Task: inverse folding
């Protein structure tokens, strides 16, 4: 019997890399993808079956999937839509182009890839689809509006998809990490400096604190866990006979999930203002 196959986006570092390596070590046939060709080469050097896939590029999405299906004999057991980044900045300071780019990568590319994969999973009568969301997919925090919005939208679409796929044998789950050790902050800093006019913003004073956080080496938030914490949850979701709709990772994610349902909105806002 052949091993199960999985396509993962955003494997250059952090969660994607750890999940790809961890599943490969557990016997999965992992198709690990990355946007930069040098990262694809690095993945290959680590023994992974690596492919170029840029979720912002429709031709790249189709070409990568065609290659996967050619190598797998036309089947794919699982998809992990992991690729994404954060665009920091106050809502009023994020240019339209930056907001569009945030959604292209975090949501639209993931959805296009999913739509290409679903006919394969329907033909074979089974499949597992995981989306890497965030605690910010249900608990909004200041200066993360573009990212908040992309993850809130992801959660709504996944909830809809789960209903539409009922009875198909295809299961959809959201992974909701909190603070995880990765290159998320350095990448977010690049986007912040590229798109936000700090000097002319009404949030100029607050941005000084945000920049200090983004430039912090090592964990910048309490309860930060290694990316292997997400791997553990992914393994559980793939092994479950009836996977959960949501898998929350890290203490802050569990905490804010309960606070969101227990506290009045004004009280929750007061909490969120203290932690961001």
Result:
């Amino acid at each position: 019997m052949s091993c199960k196959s999985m396509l993962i986006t955003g494997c250059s570092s952090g969660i994607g890399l750890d999940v790809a390596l961890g599943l490969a070590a557990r016997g999965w046939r992992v198709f690990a993808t990355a946007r930069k060709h040098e990262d694809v080469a690095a993945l290959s050097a680590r023994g992974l079956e690596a492919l170029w896939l840029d979720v912002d590029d429709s031709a790249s999405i189709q070409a990568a999937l065609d290659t996967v299906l050619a190598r797998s004999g036309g089947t794919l057991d699982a998809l992990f839509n992991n690729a994404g980044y954060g665009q920091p900045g106050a809502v009023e300071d994020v240019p339209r182009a930056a907001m569009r780019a945030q959604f292209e990568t975090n949501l639209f590319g993931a959805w296009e890839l999913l739509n290409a994969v679903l006919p394969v999973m329907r033909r074979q009568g089974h499949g597992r689809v995981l989306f890497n969301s965030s605690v910010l997919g249900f608990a909004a925090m200041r200066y993360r509006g573009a990212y908040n919005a992309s993850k809130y939208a992801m959660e709504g679409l996944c909830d809809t998809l789960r209903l539409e796929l009922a009875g198909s044998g295809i299961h959809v789950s959201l992974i909701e990490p909190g603070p995880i050790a990765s290159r998320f902050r350095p990448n977010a800093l690049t986007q912040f400096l590229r798109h936000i006019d700090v000097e002319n913003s009404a949030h100029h004073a607050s941005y000084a604190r945000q920049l200090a956080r983004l430039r912090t080496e090592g964990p910048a938030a309490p309860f930060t866990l290694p990316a292997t914490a997400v791997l553990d949850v992914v393994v559980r979701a793939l092994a479950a006979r009836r996977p959960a709709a949501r898998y929350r990772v890290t203490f802050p994610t569990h905490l804010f999930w309960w606070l969101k349902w227990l506290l009045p909105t004004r009280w929750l806002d007061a909490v969120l203002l203290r932690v961001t």
